[in-house]
UniProtKB/TrEMBL annotation:
PPM-type phosphatase domain location: 26-215
InterPro entries with a match to the protein in the record: PPM-type-like_dom_sf (IPR036457), PPM-type_phosphatase-like_dom (IPR001932)
Name by which UniProt lists this protein: Protein phosphatase 2C domain-containing protein
Length: 254
């Protein structure tokens, strides 16, 4: 599997990049930490970047060790391990505790496994160029987007799920498998990059073509220009965001 990735902080980022890419010979993990609004008490002495790094480390270890456990089990174990690292110092019952999205793929001899938790989609392209988008859009279906509503519905039935302090969130992810022969390219994206299609309306086929022909940096550069030019009031959320784009090209089996 050939992997081509760019993980770039937002132009107005103060502090460390809260996106992270972890990859190995047969897997890729993309994490996007959720930046807390100013003045919010998370109950945690650690940063969002700290949580993202811990989750990435805990996921990389079994994947590099060629664990055959389902991806959801690996994610649940990673959340449990990260939780254990700060259970004695932080209020893990606080719903505003640092959190992250998760996108994972693992390529086997016969199948490709995928898992998406929150808004970091995966795009699969078949040899015939047919595109399939694996997305978890539950945050887009919330009845309202006030801070209080999002707080109330985070990691709750009928709301949306993220990787934070609750291992059970792993089993709420969008997960599945696809025959390896049915996939040529895989794109993993944080919402700072996927907004090329989700916010600015370009077909997903165009997004994957841009990645395949010009590379992740070109895609992110295009998004940055759209972000800068977008009129106020025409989008929800931040104008700029950390952006990660990963392109995986599956090698033909001999």
């Amino acid at each position: 599997m050939d992997i081509w990735s760019v993980c770039e902080p937002a132009p107005d980022r103060v502090g460390p990049n809260e996106d992270l890419v972890v990859s190995g010979p047969d897997f890729v993990v993309v994490l996007d930490g959720a930046t807390a609004p100013k003045g919010i008490e998370s109950g945690c002495v650690h940063s969002v970047a700290w949580l993202v790094a811990r989750l990435g480390t805990q996921l990389a270890l079994p994947l590099l060790g060629r664990s055959e456990a389902p991806l959801a089990d690996l994610l649940a174990d990673a959340i449990t391990a990260a939780r254990g690292e700060h259970a004695d110092t932080c209020d893990l019952a606080n719903p505003d505790s640092p959190s992250s999205t998760v996108a994972m793929v693992r390529v086997g001899d016969e199948q490709v496994e995928h898992l998406v938790l929150a808004d970091s989609p995966i795009v699969l392209r078949a040899p015939d160029r047919q595109v399939t988008v694996v997305a978890d859009n539950r945050v887009d279906l919330l009845p309202e987007y006030t801070f209080e509503a999002v707080r109330r519905l985070r990691n709750q039935p009928g709301g949306f799920w993220v990787a934070s302090t609750e291992p059970k969130a792993a089993y709420e992810a969008v997960a599945g498998t696809t025959e390896r022969t049915a996939i040529e390219l895989i794109a993993l994206l944080t919402d700072g990059a996927s907004r090329y299609s989700e916010r600015y309306g370009h077909p997903w086929e165009d997004l994957v073509d841009t990645l395949a022909t010009a590379g992740p940096q070109t895609l992110i550069d295009k998004v940055r220009r759209y972000d800068a030019d977008a009129p106020a009031g025409t989008f929800r959320g931040k104008r700029h965001d950390d952006a990660t784009a990963v392109l995986c090209r599956l090698l033909r089996r001999r």
